[in-house]
Amino acid sequence: MVLRLVTLSKMGDKIKVGDYLIVQRQKYTKLQKFNNLNTTLNLGKDQIELRLAENNPYCTTFHLVPKQERGKRVYTLDALSTPSEIRNLKELLIKESGNDNRNIVDDRQSQGLSTEEILKLRDECESSSEVIGKLVENSKSFATKTEYSQEKYLKRKEKKYFEYITIRRPTVRLLADIYWRLDPEKVLGVRFDTLSQLISYSGVCSVGNYLLYESGTNGLLPAAMLNSMGAETGAKLVHLHPGNVAQKQALFAMEFPAEQQARCLSVNIYSVLRHFYQDKVTDKGAEDVLKEAPETAQVNEEPAIAAQEDAAVNGSGKRKHDATDEGLTVGSESGEPEAKQTKLDKQKQTWELENEAAAGIMREKFDSLVIVAKEHPYSILKALLPFVKSSRPVVIFSTSREILTECYVDLKTEASVTYLRVISNWMRQYQILPNRTHPDVTMSGSGGYLLTGYTIGN
C-alpha cells in the first residue's frame, strides 16, 4: 500500500526570486534557494549564475553557457525551447562496434590526448558534445569495444561534461530523495517508501486533527502530512518537537499557501504539555490533574522551558519563518520608549500563543498520532496517547526493530492499543535496459520499521 505524494503547485508557474528550486543535472538533484538575481549555484567545481532563470516556466531545461573568466568554471543559463535540442551522443558517435572486449588491454595508453590538451579542449569547444567527440576520435580502443561498453563510456564522459540542467519545483518525493542521498540521518532514516507508508497508515486526509512528534527530519514529516491534507481544507496539524526551534527547511521549500501553512502549529512538546495541564488546574484540583497526567507530562522539564523562554525574550530563539514577529509591534499606539519593551513582550508571547492554540486542539483530541523520534518512543507515546480519539491509528517509526518490539510488548500489556503490527519495507530498485535488466549494484539495506495499531476507547 503506497500513497502517491502529490504537490499543489501548477506546472505553469514561473521561476521567481525567493523560490526554492530543485536543480537537476542528469540523475543528480540539489535544493537551492533563489535569494536574489546574484544567486550562484555550485555543482561540483562548476558555478552557475541563476539570474537568467527568472520568469522561465518550471521544468525548463537550460544550456550552460561558459563565461570567459580565468581560473573559474562559471556558466550562465540559456533556456532551450525544447529538450530535443540535446544531442544524442549514441547516434552521433557510435558507428562501429566490436564483438567482445577480450583483446582490449587497460594500459592507460588508449587515449591519445594528454590532460593538458583535454583541459584546453574544454575551454575552446562550444559544447560538451564536441569535447566527447574529440575524446572518441583520439581513443585507440573505442571502435573495438562492444556497443554496450561504448554506451557506458559515453555515459561516463557525458556525466562529466554534461552541459544541461533542468529546474523543477520542489515536491515531497524529490526532497525525500535529496535528504536521503546526502545523509539518511538528516531524516532519521525515513526512506521515501517508508514515508508514503507513514502517511497511508496514519490516515492523513483533508479533514480532522493530526498529531506528529518528530525530533529532526528537516521538516520532511510535517511537509508530507501538510501536503496530504491539501490547501482548501479544515484539517489541522500539531507538530511537536523537543527543541526551541523546529526544523522546517522542507516546509519552506514546499512553499505552501499562507492559509495552509498556518494550519501547522510547531510547538515544543514539554512547553505545550505544561501549558495544557496548567490550564486544567483551573477546572480541577492540582492533585487530580497530576493523577490524570501521564508520567512523562509530570517530569520536571523546567530547564528546557526556561531556556526556551529566555531565547524568546532575548530574540535568539526567534523562528526564522515568523516574518511577522517584528510586524506585531509596528502598530504601537505609543511612540514613547515603552514601545521597545512592548515589542519584547509581544515577541515573547508568540510561542505562548502557539502553545495556547495547540492546547486547544489537544482538548478536542486528534484523529491519528505519528511518532518519529531519535529517543525511545514509549515515554513519548504514553504522554501523547490520551490526546488521541478512540479507534484512531497510531504509527511509530524506528530504525531499530528491537525498540518497536519493546513498545509492542508494553502496549499489549496495557491493552491501550489494538491490532498491533511491526512491519518493514523491502524495496529493490532495478535498472531497466534492453537485455540487461538487473537490480542496482548499490542500494539501502533497510528503510526502518513501523509499529502500527488503533487506539481503544477508555
Largest sheet: 7 strands, mixed
Helix/strand-derived category reads: alpha/beta
Q: Report the portion of residues in β strands.
A: 15-25%
Low-confidence region ranges: 1-12, 296-336
Rounded average pLDDT? 80
CATH architecture of the domain at 172-275 and 351-455: 3-Layer(aba) Sandwich
Q: C-alpha Rg, in Å?
A: 28 Å
Q: Can you say what the CATH homologous superfamily of the domain at 172-275 and 351-455 is?
A: Vaccinia Virus protein VP39
Shape: elongated
Q: Strands across the major sheet, in which order?
A: 2-1-7-5-6-4-3
Give the number of helices. Answer: 16
The CATH topology of the domain at 172-275 and 351-455 comes to Rossmann fold
Q: What's the number of extended β-strand segments?
A: 16
User: In oligomeric terms, what are we looking at?
Assistant: single chain
Tell me the helix content: 25-40%
CATH class category label of the domain at 172-275 and 351-455: Alpha Beta
User: Separation of termini?
Assistant: 30 Å
Main location: nucleus
Subcellular location: Nucleus
Family: Belongs to the TRM6/GCD10 family.
Pfam families: Gcd10p
3D architecture notes:
- With 458 residues, the chain is of the alpha/beta class.
- Helix content is 37%, strand content 19%.
- It is built from 16 helices and 16 strands.
- A 7-stranded mixed beta sheet has the order 2-1-7-5-6-4-3.
- α10 (269-281) crosses α14 (338-364) and α13 crosses α14 (338-364).
